[in-house]
Amino acid sequence: SYRPLMGVKAYDLTGRTAFVTGAASGIGRACAVLLAGAGAIVHGADLDAPGLHETATLIKDLGGTARTHHLDVTDRVQVRQAVESCERLDVMAAVAGIMHRSPVLETRDEDLDRVLNVNFKGVLYACQEAARLMIAHDSGGSIVTMASGAVDTGGPGLLCYGAAKAAVVQLTKTLANEVGRYGIRVNAVAPGWIRTPMTDRHDADAQEHTEALMSRMSPLGRVGAPEDVAHAVLHLASDASAFTTGQILRPNGGVAMP
Ligand code: NAD
């Protein structure tokens, strides 16, 4: 029978293992560091080897335990091997993703394929391999996917990106229904505008303009930081959210959704 850990202890991940894709940068790095800070052994995966190494160093400097997997999330075999190398798996955070903008009438097949491959299939493979291992070990677990506020709002140029993120939401709800009986929870995080390398406009004026605009849209009057999303992921990863599955959590500063 279910005996909840009370209060802050519910956020303790000591003795748990977490796998984080996209761990070399931005939100994925913040998730890897926070989950390690909560006590988990963290396996970080990314295409960017130097960035991964930096994340692992950050974790080790904080006294945590990190392993790295230099891989492409669109390669199912690489993802399987990396996930299977974990002795146990309690948490999967499928964060890796890319941005792409093109008007619908100028969108090419190769744009759509690339974005769906990384942002949808990359998340799908991570979810499938994680759920398989959790079921095999009969250990339960928590899977967190990375959607986006773009799913709610749409937006010019966001056809490929938003379609992939909408597919991630569908994956999340479907998988949650299918694996709940194994004690596995599946939830999505749909952040608003977060300051990361993905949203860097490489021009100080343009950046300031965008951030001022985004800040005005939030009742909290600021843009998001990677840590704001990582805390939402920690909540979903931990026993604090033990009765939450198939949901979308929106760390977006309260930006009004249509
Ligand atoms: P980021 O660019 O800082 O980090 C993305 C990471 O994913 C990078 O380290 C990159 O190397 C990795 N990656 C990309 N393709 C990969 C592949 N094929 N295989 C392995 N790793 C790969 O971006 P971020 O802002 O931290 O975004 C992280 C996630 O959050 C993405 O899924 C993004 O769509 C989502 N998101 C971001 C924002 C935002 O405003 N920054 C808002 C909503 C959702």
UniProtKB/TrEMBL annotation:
Keyword Iron-sulfur attributed: no
Tell me the protein family, please: Belongs to the short-chain dehydrogenases/reductases (SDR) family.
Q: Cross-referenced SUPFAM superfamilies, in alphabetical order?
A: NAD(P)-binding Rossmann-fold domains (SSF51735)
**What GO molecular function annotations does the UniProt record carry, in alphabetical order?**
oxidoreductase activity
Q: What is this protein called?
A: 3-oxoacyl-[acyl-carrier-protein] reductase FabG
Q: Does the keyword Oxidoreductase apply?
A: yes
The record's Gene3D superfamilies line, in alphabetical order, gives: NAD(P)-binding Rossmann-like Domain
Organism, per UniProt? Streptomyces phaeofaciens
| Name of one Pfam family that matches | adh_short_C2
Q: Which UniProt keywords apply?
A: Oxidoreductase
Against InterPro entries, the record matches this protein to: NAD(P)-bd_dom_sf (IPR036291), Sc_DH/Rdtase_CS (IPR020904), SDR_fam (IPR002347)
